Prior knowledge:
It is built from 15 helices and 14 strands.
Amino acid sequence: MSVNACSEASPTQTPLPAEAGGGKLRIVHCFRSPVGGIFRHVRDLCDAQRAAGHDVGIICDSTTGGDYEASLIAALEPSLSLGVRRTPMQRHIGIGDLTAARRAYHVVREMRPDVLHGHGAKGGVYARVFGTMMRMAGQRPARIYSPHGGSLHYAAETATGRVFFAIERLMDRFTDHILFVSDYEKRTFEQKVGKPRAPFSLVYNGLTPAEFEPVRTVGNAADFLYIGMMRDLKGPDLFIDALALTRDLLGRDLTAVMVGDGAGLEGYRRQADELGFGERIRFLPAMPAREAFGLARIMVVPSRAEAMPYIVLEALAAGRTLIATAVGGIPEVFGEASPALTEPDAGAIAGTMQRALDDERAFHAIMPPPEELRARFGADVMAKAIETVYRTSLPITR
């Protein structure tokens, strides 16, 4: 994982020094749903920050996430000196959100953070509003925001998009630093919200050394693999349609494994049945990604929108063959011209799936080499850069 200062000169851009010094910090990560890439990112930061001697805690929603996520929280919680606090958080803005926000604010205030780091749209609003209220009450937390895509996925011309981008512009005034996970995310923020007033940096997501160990393919592996949340934004419907088109192009049956949970799961099961796949598509619940990687020879990430998805980095680091849509920060990993990239369209994905099956060895050879990935994406580099941002964002009066 690599750390970069943002590429454009800007009076608010903060260059990142090589080392972060200073004493112990009380760090609280605030986000809504303990699933997917945001939760993975927070877990990585928590591990690195507690190893560096900091007091770390989490506040997140209590109504989302399944058994797998609950097991991850249970494993993480004993190592966090500030604990894991879960409280209901609505996804969308509404009357009930006021009650949820009030409850969450009291929890955060009791944790007395030096750094309040909000992740995603809801976590970002909570962290900045709570941090500002705490400052008015005498506490002085640094207010850090990582969008992780979040509200930036909405179209600017929609009513929902206009509301969210207006909120983002308002919240910018109460932000001490914005951390973007890809250049795409930074550019999208500038296009839809405006150039940040707050200092900002680009810090890529990072992987641990163990994640660069290759994963072997099982003996009865399927042709294709999907791993992710079962919601249209991540493209499981595109994956199923593309698989059917590829089957028809090749004139033979294909098999797939789809791993993940979510509200749309039953709809995707019906879609697969209607297209005649039956048991040739296996649906499995969420599991550690490295356990799933070997279940098929070729993995597909068919997302309609992304920021910088961990699953792409994890799969490539594990030596897997990967097809991905050219959305968000994904081209920054592969290179803009990579033949492994495709449009988020079932026909385009199917064409790439067919080419991958035509010569699997040649297609695997176009994946980014592990040495390059290791040099650009490392969890230790990510954590060090983010700690530097924390320290430069602390109020001078501390």
